[in-house]
Hints:
Structural class: mainly alpha
Number of helices: 12
Helix content: over 70%
Radius of gyration: 20 Å
Strand content: under 5%
Number of strands: 0
Shape: globular
Order of helices and strands: HHHHHHHHHHHH
Amino acid sequence: MASQNELISKAEDVADQVLRKSKNVLPHVARLCLISTFLEDGIRMWFQWSEQRDYINQTWGCGWFLSTLFVLINLVGQIAGCIMVLSRQKVPAACGLLFFIIALQTVAYSILWDLKFLMRNIALVGGVILLLAESFSEGKSMFPGVPNLGSNRPKTYMQLSGRLMLVLMFMTLLRFDFTTLQIIQNLVGSILIGLVAVGYKTKLSALILVLWLTIFNFYANAWWNIPAYRPMRDFLKYDFFQTFSVIGGLLLIVAFGPGGVSMDEHKKDY
């Protein structure tokens, strides 16, 4: 038990050193990762304009005008939202725009009926919620030196809900193959997911998940190895960038912590 605690303490020390050295860069990297799926999809709407329009028209029978409007909204909405997030201009409005795009695509592409993709979309919503929470400035007290209790409660609950939604991405990665390696991966992954969800040793757990998910993403979603004419290339590219968005949400947790509703925060009271 003592050796385990010592190992965890050393790991936390390493994580703290990494965070101190990257504290000025990490939030920018987190935001870039988080909006990557929207940026890629917005660009894809431009280069696959006809294909996307025809797909929506054939799926919903909504006609040329509405299907073209759908593609245009996705293109402009996603590119504009990404630019606003990266430039730190009107971030709440940008997040609202990205929420709308997620909801629109969830319905248009029938993601509601695919549990795996639905869970990933909810995880993406969690990342955007964390981005929105990060844009909230700390409330200032009316009286100097007196804490403004409850002034930032919406931000606290947004951090909690975003954190809980993010873990759904890892639920889609669990495989029920009874091999030794897969059992270990499921066990370790589940433990880390649980720690992030309850907010215990959150920064270390989230950082390990970032490393794990990044390695998994490059291994499992290597879309650049698939010829351009095969549909699988687009599916893998979609998974690749959506996973990077969840990584961005986890990096926000690493950079700014789990928020007030967490075991890490309550430990400070004792």
